[in-house]
Each structure stands twice: as structure tokens, then as C-alpha cells.
Specification:
The complex is a heterodimer of chains A (450) and B (127).
Chain A lengths: L3 E4 L3 H13 L3 E7 L13 E6 L10 H11 L3 E3 L9 H9 L3 E2 L4 H8 L1 H10 L16 H11 L3 E9 L2 E6 L5 H16 L4 E5 L5 E9 L5 E13 L2 E7 L6 H18 L3 E10 L2 E8 L6 H8 L3 H9 L16 E8 L11 E2 L2 E3 L6 E5 L6 E2 L6 E9 L2 H14 L1 E3 L5 H8 L2 H5 L6 H11 L1
Helix pairs in contact in A: 3-4, 11-12
Chain B lengths: L3 H14 L3 E6 L2 E6 L11 E7 L4 E4 L15 E2 L4 E7 L2 E6 L4 E6 L6 E2 L4 E8 L1
Antiparallel strand pairs in B: 1-2, 3-10, 4-6, 4-9, 5-8, 6-7, 8-10
Protein name (chain B): Biotin-requiring enzyme
Pfam family, one (chain B): Biotin_lipoyl
Enzyme class (chain A): ligase
Chain lengths: 450, 127
């Protein structure tokens, strides 16, 4: 049981965690880099301490400095947020070794889910549907590999076991290219992830990205909190997320959700997590589990009325959830637009000083942001400056609210992707619902050509 | 507050009594004057450098096994000299003067928890 929490992150999620901690009467210590010394959310933390220069590898990725900061300030727990060290098993180990609480699952769970082959094996054991393909790394022998690919059927995809986030992957469409593709992917896997193991799966041509949110306490309560559709992506980066996923049979979602919760029980998972799936032709295919809170958690919070970050802290404190699976209901529809400091159509970053912020407000509108007028966006980090989230009675209502909110939202002094988001709210494919993960890139290409 | 008139008076006193250097402390301000031989020679220009932390921890201005502070205002320090420590449990991380000069003002207090890049003291550096 801790009463002081160190927040090992920055930006909107640092502020979001602060709010949840305050709600539970937990004091907060915000660590920051020199580039973030002027960040507005530092003013509302109970304590702050600079842990290093602007470059993330010397500050937000410096596990030892973060643990020292916790020990020196008397914080009993560390919340990693998302990105940075949030899925780093060694970080969880260092925290535990220092006698502190890591707000998240055990280092062993992070390690299992970080190895995509091991993760797949655990999912198959728990009955979670996976993409067709063996649950083991590929052998060395190219003839044996070709036989495996034949059995799966082309096209297939080769993936690095230690990979993630869209790197270290290669699609192979016919047998004549398999040997060369295996060699290249192995070499990349070694170079990027320091692990030459690769595995093979059926390649799905036009899937949607649908994910299941789970949250577990340390008393064996594993809940699934519904689904999200995050198919609106560009270069594997999510742009818009919504809950629930439109047009998918609720009974099928519930079946998959139960299997995810069951997998959590089997691996002794504690904390928030997300099972990411590809969804094609009415079937779910597990791709990976994220062992942390997601950027898009607010859409789930709006439709369930549950506070995921608060539940993370309760689980980390060793408390048992009072809410049970039967209490979890999805009401209405929620949409999140990621607002980035970048050109809406060329996507080149636009850091700089914000001169004005006019926030949209009204029924069903939530804005998660750390920016304000006068704030200078550092160039070292991710370009996301805000998340605009709306909740409506149904999807059409939510869409209408988002259109209005986007037109009211003004950020002066920098360029943002608000105009892109506004166009997408009126784009026929998205308005209809159920687009696949290639939709945005195709739409952008067509838009650029016309 | 040191005025131009004070400077004039200090300079004439130095010349009158043949003093080469003079240091006057008033609150947080430190005035340091040096005459180099001839009456007409210009004063050697000085710049102020701030020594900052390269890690985090509790500031020690005195080594735990000694009774005197490592440095005090007015002390000459060499580049690379240890002017303090950051304590983390049993580990002492030295705070090092980047440039040679004279210790000016101590900016942080003993036992304070300092983050990365925090100012510890100033050094007056001969140009």
C-alpha cells in the first residue's frame, strides 16, 4: 500500500495519472527532462524532479534515474504510463528490486507478452483465437520453412519474435520469394530487436484492428471492458479510435472478451492490458498484447463509466475490485481523435509555441491535454498534444458531436491535424463504419492525386 | 547594492594603498576587483560559470567524513575539482567544477534534493 506515486512519463498521460492519483488521495511526484522543465502539468504535481536532459534515452528511458528519484522522494510506486519504459521487463525488475511497486503486470508477464512466439503459445493455450501459423519460431532449414508456408497458404507474413509496432515484418506472396525474405527478416530482427528468431503467419489482406481492454486485480478478478476499433491508422500509428467496434456481432465480442479475461487468469496478469486482434471475415486473430494502459483508453472509459487509470492504481495497491464482470455494460458510442502537432496532410511535425487554445466543450465532450497558451512543444518527443473524445447515444450521435467539437477546437501558433480529423468525420467510409487498416493510406493517396 | 560611485571609491582606495585585489561581499552579491600592476591597465574581465548537477540526489557540500565544507565563497578551485556530492544511499556522486576560478555564490543548500541540471554554485572565471 503506497500513498505517494512517481509518474514516469510526460504530456497528457502524466496529467491523466495525476488526476487519478489525486482522486484516491495519493500524492504525486512528476519526473521530467530538461526539455519539459516548463510543462504545465508539473505545477499540479505534489513534487517534481528533473531526471536528465531532453533526449529520452537519458531521461524518460533512464530506469536507474527514475528509481533513484522514487527512492529520494519517498514514492512507493511508479506508474510508467504508455511508451517509454512501460513495457520494459527490466524496468519492472529494477523497481521490484528497489522494494517499490510497479503499476502494471509482473516482469514475467511483460517478458512473455514481449516475445511474440511465447505470447502466441500462451494465447493458444488459453483458447484465444490466433492467426493461422505455428506457435514456434521458424527452423533454420529453408525447405522446412517453405513446407510450413505451403501448409498455411500464401500470402504469409514473416515477423520478428521480439518485434512490435509494425517493424521487422515482411509479406511474402509466393514460394519463390520465401528464402530471400526469411534471410532479410532474420537480419532485421537481429539488428532491431537483438533477437534473430522469426515466426510465420497467414497474411490477412484487409483486416480491421479491433482490441479488447482488460483489467485485473491481484485477487484473481480479471475483467474485460469491451472492445475498441482502431482501424484508422497511418504507418501503424492509430489516428482515430472508437468503442464499440461498429457492425460486429456482440455475442462474438463477448466470447473473445471472456477468452481474454481467461488468458489473464491463466498467466496471473495484474493491471490494465489490451489484446490486439485483426478482424477479417467475421473472425478474430490475436496479434499481440500490450501490457500497459493505451492512449485510447478514454473511449472505453466513456462507454463503460469505469476509470481505468484509477483501477490500475487500485490493483497496484493490492485492492480487490468491487465491480464484477456482470456490472460492466457498454452504453452509447465513443470516438477519440488524436490531435497532433503536425501538418494535416504532409504529416511533417510542427513544434513551436502555442499562442491560443480554445477548447471545445459541451455534453459528452472530453479533452485530455497538457497544453495551454504560452506552452512550447518540445521537438524531442511524440507530436500528440491532445486527445479529443466524445460520447454519444449512438455512433451517429457521437460522429455529430465530434464534428461540432472539432470545428470549435482551436490551437493557435502551431499547425495541427485538426483539419484532417474534421475531413475524416465526413469521409463516407468512416461515416459508414467498419473500414480496414489500409483505408486511411488509400484515402490519403487518392486525395493527394486529385 | 553596489553603485558606480562605490566602484570608483574602491578603485581609488586600492590604488592609494597599493592593493592588487579586493573582494567585497554584500548580501548575495560579491564584488571582486583586481589591479594588474600599472594604474592604466584594464581590469581583467571575468565571467560567471554555474556548476550544475549531472545526476540527482541530496546535496552534500561537506564530505561526510570531514567537518569543513569542500569549498567556500572566495576559494580558488581548479577545473575538475570536487565542490560537492550528490548522495544516493551509500553512493556519493561528485559535483565537479567545469572551469577553474574563484567560488562565487553557493546556490543550493546542504541536504537539498536536487534533480539533474540543478545549479549548485557559481565560479568566477578569468577570461
Amino acid at each position: 500500500m503506497f500513498d505517494k506515486l512517481l509518474i514516469a512519463n510526460r504530456g497528457e498521460i502524466a496529467l491523466r495519472i495525476q488526476k487519478a492519483a489525486r482522486g484516491l488521495g495519493i500524492k504525486t511526484v512528476c519526473v521530467y527532462s530538461q526539455a519539459d522543465a516548463e510543462a504545465p502539468y508539473l505545477e499540479t504535481a505534489d513534487e517534481t524532479i528533473c531526471i536528465g536532459p531532453g533526449a529520452a534515452r537519458n531521461s524518460y528511458l533512464n530506469a536507474d534515474a527514475i528509481v533513484l528519484a522514487a527512492l529520494q522522494t519517498g514514492a512507493g510506486a511508479i506508474h510508467p504510463g504508455y511508451g517509454f519504459l512501460s513495457e520494459n521487463a527490466r524496468f519492472a525488475d529494477v523497481i521490484a528490486d528497489a522494494g517499490l511497486v510497479f503499476v502494471g503486470p509482473s516482469a514475467d508477464c511483460i517478458r512473455t507478452m514481449g516475445d511474440k512466439v511465447e505470447a502466441k503459445r500462451a494465447m493458444i493455450a488459453a483458447g484465444v483465437p490466433c492467426v493461422p501459423g505455428p506457435d514456434s519460431a521458424l527452423p533454420q532449414d529453408v525447405t522446412a520453412i517453405a513446407a510450413i508456408a505451403d501448409e498455411i497458404g500464401y500470402p504469409v507474413i514473416l515477423k520478428a519474435a521480439g518485434g512490435g509496432g509494425g517493424r521487422g515484418m515482411r509479406v511474402v506472396r509466393s514460394r519463390e520469394h520465401i528464402a530471400e525474405a526469411v534471410a532479410l527478416t532474420r537480419e532485421e530482427a537481429q539488428r532491431f530487436f537483438n533477437n534473430p528468431e522469426i515466426y510465420i503467419e497467414k497474411f490477412l489482406e484487409n483486416p480491421r484492428h479491433v482490441e479488447i481492454q482488460v483489467i485485473c486485480d491481484s485477487h484473481g478478478n480479471a475483467l474485460w471492458l469491451g472492445d475498441r476499433d482502431c482501424s484508422m491508422q497511418r504507418r501503424h500509428q492509430k489516428v482515430i479510435e472508437e468503442a464499440p467496434a461498429p457492425g460486429i456481432d456482440r455475442a462474438l465480442i463477448a466470447e473473445v472478451g471472456e477468452r481474454c479475461a481467461n488468458a489473464c487468469r491463466q498467466i496471473g496478469y495484474v493491471g490494465a492490458g489490451t489484446f490486439e486482434f485483426l478482424f477479417e471475415d467475421g473472425q478474430f486473430y490475436f496479434i499481440e498484447m500490450n501490457t500497459r494502459v493505451q492512449v485510447e483508453h478514454p473511449v472505453t472509459e466513456l462507454v463503460t463509466g469505469l476509470d481505468i487509470v484509477t483501477m490500475q492504481l487500485q490493483a497496484a495497491r493490492g485492492e480487490a475490485f468491487t465491480v464484477q464482470q456482470g456490472d460492466v455494460e457498454t452504453r452509447g458510442h465513443a470516438i477519440e481523435c488524436r490531435i497532433n502537432a503536425e501538418d494535416p496532410f504532409t504529416f511533417s511535425p510542427s513544434p513551436g509555441t502555442i499562442t491560443e487554445v480554445v477548447a471545445p466543450n459541451g455534453e459528452g465532450i472530453r479533452l485530455d491535454t497538457h497544453i495551454r497558451a504560452g506552452y512550447t512543444i518540445p521537438s524531442q518527443y511524440d507530436s500528440m498534444v491532445a486527445k479529443l473524445i466524445v460520447h454519444g447515444a449512438d455512433r451517429a450521435d457521437a460522429l455529430q458531436r465530434m464534428r461540432k467539437a472539432l470545428s470549435d477546437f482551436r490551437i493557435g501558433g502551431i499547425t495541427t491535424n485538426i483539419p484532417l480529423q474534421a475531413e475524416l468525420m465526413n469521409e463516407p467510409g468512416f461515416a459508414k463504419g467498419g473500414i480496414n487498416i489500409h483505408h486511411l493510406e488509400h484515402w490519403l493517396a487518392e486525395r493527394a492525386a486529385s | 547594492m553596489i553603485t558606480i560611485a562605490d566602484l570608483d571609491r574602491a578603485l581609488s582606495l586600492m590604488q592609494e594603498h597599493g592593493l592588487e585585489t579586493l573582494r567585497v561581499r554584500e548580501g548575495e552579491a560579491l564584488l571582486s576587483l583586481t589591479l594588474s600592476g600599472s594604474e592604466t591597465a584594464p581590469l581583467a574581465p571575468r565571467s560567471e560559470a554555474t556548476v550544475t548537477t549531472k545526476g540527482l540526489g541530496r546535496l552534500l557540500l561537506t564530505h561526510p567524513q570531514h567537518s569543513d565544507p569542500l569549498v567556500q565563497p572566495g576559494d580558488a578551485v581548479a577545473a575538475g575539482a570536487t565542490v560537492g556530492f550528490l548522495e544516493n544511499g551509500s553512493v556519493l556522486l561528485p559535483v565537479v567544477a567545469g572551469k577553474a576560478g574563484t567560488v562565487g555564490t553557493i546556490l543550493a543548500s546542504e541536504g537539498a534534493l536536487l534533480g539533474y541540471g540543478a545549479p549548485v554554485l557559481t565560479i568566477l572565471v578569468e577570461a
